[in-house]
């Protein structure tokens, strides 16, 4: 049986969690608190970078959430979350990487603000919101009138983007100016896998002190 090491409130973890549920793959869930257990020698043998998530399949261990998604797609091809043609596959991967490399880093100043850390004078909040609008415009351009980000079929792009955007409400980021993106998000939120992995507001708020400590440690 697969072993899935993760933290439920992590967007990186959630995208893998959702795909496991969507594919109905049986797995053992091992939750890390990230309060020191990620530095335990046993876990460092699996992931020397002490990050989450980590997936163990027998004698094979894989880290990095996007790599884990690709592994699950290849190992459990039905139902498929990967388009067949090159163009659509390229768009799918592009949207995944925009989320990881553009959206998540851009929201970091807002996350710091929410957990009570001082603002960085070199990162004006107005510029942060402007960048987020650019990213949302980019998503909506590819979504168009389609039910999913790259067409008629749900793909890994929906899994990656769709497990980040719903959590942005905790940073006062709204989709009201992006109605197509909002409708797409609401559709995904109706899926059983999204409902099962949806963090509770009280759990999110309870995590702020831990997030603040982690971010403070990283900045030192």
Description:
This protein is of the alpha+beta class. It folds into two domains: 2-75, Glutaredoxin; 86-197, Glutathione S-transferase Yfyf (Class Pi), Chain A, domain 2. The chain is 55% helix and 8% strand. The protein is built from ten helices and four strands, in the order E-H-E-H-E-E-H-H-H-H-H-H-H-H. Strands 2-1-3-4 form a four-stranded mixed sheet, with helices on one face. Strand 3 (54-57) and strand 4 form a beta hairpin. Helix 1 packs across helix 6 (156-162), helix 4 packs antiparallel against helix 5 and helix 4 (86-115) packs parallel to helix 6.
- CATH topology name of the largest domain: Glutathione S-transferase Yfyf (Class Pi), Chain A, domain 2
Strand content: 5-15%
Number of helical runs? 10
Q: Which percent bin holds the helix content?
A: 40-55%
| Separation, N- and C-terminal Cα atoms | 39 Å
Brief sketch in words of this structure:
The protein has helices at 11-22, 41-46, 65-75, 86-115, 125-143, 156-162, 179-189, 192-197, 201-206, 208-219, and strands at 2-6, 27-31, 54-57, 60-63.
Q: What topology emerges from the helices and strands here?
A:
Blueprint: E1 2-6, H1 11-22, E2 27-31, H2 41-46, E3 54-57, E4 60-63, H3 65-75, H4 86-115, H5 125-143, H6 156-162, H7 179-189, H8 192-197, H9 201-206, H10 208-219
Parallel strand pairs: 1-2
Antiparallel strand pairs: 1-3, 3-4
Helix pairs in contact: 1-3, 1-6, 4-5, 4-6
């Amino acid at each position: 049986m697969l072993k899935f090491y993760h933290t439920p409130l992590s967007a990186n973890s959630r995208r893998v969690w959702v795909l496991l549920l969507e594919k109905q793959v049986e797995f053992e869930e091992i939750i890390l608190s990230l309060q020191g257990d990620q530095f335990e020698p046993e876990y460092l043998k699996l992931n020397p970078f002490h990050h989450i998530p980590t997936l163990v399949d027998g004698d094979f261990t894989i880290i990095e959430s996007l790599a884990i998604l690709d592994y699950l797609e290849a190992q459990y091809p039905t139902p498929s979350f990967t388009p067949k043609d090159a163009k659509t596959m390229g768009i799918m991967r592009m949207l995944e990487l925009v989320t990881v490399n553009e959206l998540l880093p851009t929201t970091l100043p807002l996350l710091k603000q929410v957990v009570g850390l001082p603002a960085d004078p070199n990162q004006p909040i107005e510029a942060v919101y402007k960048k987020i609008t650019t990213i949302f415009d980019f998503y909506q351009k590819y979504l168009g009138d389609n039910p999913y980000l790259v067409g008629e079929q749900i793909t890994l792009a929906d899994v990656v983007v769709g497990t980040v955007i719903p959590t942005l409400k905790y940073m006062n980021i709204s989709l009201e100016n992006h109605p197509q993106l909002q409708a797409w998000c609401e559709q995904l939120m109706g899926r059983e896998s999204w409902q099962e992995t949806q963090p509770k507001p009280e759990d999110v708020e309870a995590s702020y002190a831990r997030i603040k400590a982690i971010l403070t440690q990283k900045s030192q």
